[in-house]
Amino acid sequence: MTKQPRELALLAESGRLLASVFGLLDRTALAGMSTLQVNEMVERFIVHDLRARPASKGQYGYGFVLNSSVNDVVCHGVPSQSEVLRSGDIVNFDITLEKNGYIADSSKTYLVGEVSPAARKLVQTTQEAMWKGIRAVRPGARLGDIGFAIERHAKRNGYSVVHEYCGHGIGRKMHEEPQVLHFGKPGTGIVLREGMVFTIEPMLNSGRRSVRTEADGWTVVTKDGSLSAQFEHTVAVTASGVSILTLRPGELG
Ligand code: MG
Prior knowledge:
Elements: H1 5-26, H2 35-49, E1 53-54, E2 66-70, E3 73-75, E4 90-99, E5 102-111, H3 117-135, H4 143-156, E6 160-161, E7 167-169, E8 176-180, E9 197-200, E10 203-205, E11 211-213, E12 220-222, E13 228-230, E14 233-237, E15 242-244
Antiparallel strand pairs: 1-4, 2-4, 3-12, 4-5, 6-10, 7-8, 9-14, 10-13, 11-12, 14-15
Helix pairs in contact: 1-2, 3-4
The structure holds magnesium ion.
């Protein structure tokens, strides 16, 4: 379950490239774009500018390079020409990128135009929850410490954590061991060791945590129609703590 230094260097390179994809999205005015247009823009950038492979395309029969999850969509939203982003929407873009055989995975929820204070707070709290989880990563800590930190922050702010989807080990394959739950008890689960690489990607709902999958077989929505947000980074356990492989320049302020 641990990676060698050579593999870690390759994963860091994939992570750096993927961070630059989010840099592109950060510079893009999303209002008025369809989620399919965003998908096409990202695909061109990954393939032509970065000379990398969009790892989601073709994986599990999926036809796009990203998932676009708008408002009450929890995850796995499918880009569409008819889905045009409007001021007030929140949208998560979840993207994977493979370079030299190694895959990085990251997602970010964007505020489109003028967003309600309630939606803004959900998005901000979800990002904070991800950071709480990342800060729990160090050699000797346990997986349960990560989930506990995330869920505690969500609950303190009145939000629920989706249980059906979790973070995952990542490397040559998009989904490897271990599963990284976004809830749990401190001091439980496997012990983290230097060289482990996995994602932390909490999904928080403003209402109840229950979800359902729509008829397309992909799109997961909140059962109660409440808003949902998500953030994700790929991280590596280092000798002294954690390295965030998909960190964007300036992200930590
Ligand atoms: Mg993931």
